[in-house]
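Hi, here's the filled form for the chain we discussed.

Project: internal
Contact: R.S.
Residues: 502
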Amino acid sequence: MIKKILAILVAGFVISSPAMAATTANVPFLTWENGKTQSIVLGGPGSNSAWKMALEGGNIAPLIFDQSVKSANGTYTYSLNIPKDLEPGGYVIQAVETNGNKTVVAGVQIKARETYRITEIPTDLRLLAIIFAALTAIFTVVRSRKYAQLSFARRRVESNFFFYKFRNTRLASEGNSLARYAALRSGEPLHQISPIAWSILPWLAIPLGIFTTIKIQFDAAIPNGPIVLFFLCAALGELDATTGIVLALSLGFMHVGLGNVTNVRGLVVAVTFTLAWYFPAMIASLVELTIKRDFKKLSEKSTALISALIASLVGGASVAMSTILTDSLVVNRQASELLRWPLAAVVALVLFVKFSSSIILNRDDVTDENLYLARVVSPGLATTLFFGTLLLVYVWTNQFSSALIGSLVISAPYFLLFLVFPKIGNVLKSEVPRNILLEAVIVAALTWGIYILIQLLPMAVVSKSRAFILLGLVPSLLHAIYSVAVASSEFQARRSDVEEMA
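And the returned structure, exactly as it came back:
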């Protein structure tokens, strides 16, 4: 009886991966790449949901497939994340019955991963979405009135040194934007230690960026190249975000000059790759400046240390985001594993030491550098994000409709940052205090929850990934709408206060 059931199952066997090397009369033979998620569809009149599917072979412990819910036509989709370090060679898929009996249902040839397509690696897509959702939540919370007044202590320096005067003048000419303020905060620990080094470092970054580009040209291509130089560029960028921006611009312009950028996609690859050199410092500075308001009940030193730790972790996570974005665009080349979590750890450590140094230095010759946060992001940045995500999602899915809907969902929270509705503020009165860490964790957890629910659907891996691209960041959108309501309430309350004072 069991043999008949298995015959029916094999007859209904459908492989989601396009690489089917060959088949025999009764048992399919498949070719899969390691480091990707693979799936099979099995079903029939006698299919049993209690059965397990396992990949076995070599000296590895059996790898158990995840099972979806039952489809309308009675089939189940079994998915397995093939480890990237799984030894290439021959393996078998076995049906494991409740009593422990096993029957081979397919043979599998595992080979090394040749291409990086993020829809075939949903674990990376999940990580990218969770990090981006948390970052988006940070931006939407920061618009609250609670975080509007920003301040940090800046060393007073009287210097006629040309490079120092030049950088100070340039910073003053950029106005009171949040980007300028975050960059200034990012470099302040270095400024307190050595104003001369602070003023010269961006100039030294220009030849370093050019040299790094040349080494990439000779050795490989983005994202491959001299790992030591990549770590050095990232470390310098975390010490001072302005230096990181100069490094990124130097590499970008040199990359174009050498003829390595022949289309928009090549340019975006350079942008996403160098994002790890300055964005972690920028977002970490924003978090460090604002999240202190959530720990007022603690001592000043404890608040500073906790803020430094959280900001550093956020900065480190953004490195992983940069690496995944780059790999998803390059496709045929993959960044070294060192450029993900090892680099993220180094970046987080540099950021933590930098922020903690302010507690140790505790200088007296300082003045408060203040900013009233009237706007979190500019319309230009939100528009750039929309078109950038449109390109990204199109590369991932090869479907313009999915790219358009996905980019709208992803960028909508940033456009909502400009909106308030006073009439809504008259109706909705939010008494719940905003909290950056708590809200970011909730949004990230909901994003993860959507991923888990989608994985239960009886769909192929790529189809699940496309569904997650469209739905995964809906919690961010809902959170942004909630933030609009809260901001409208705060706006109305502030206007009422002004009218009473008048």
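Let me know if anything looks off before we file it.
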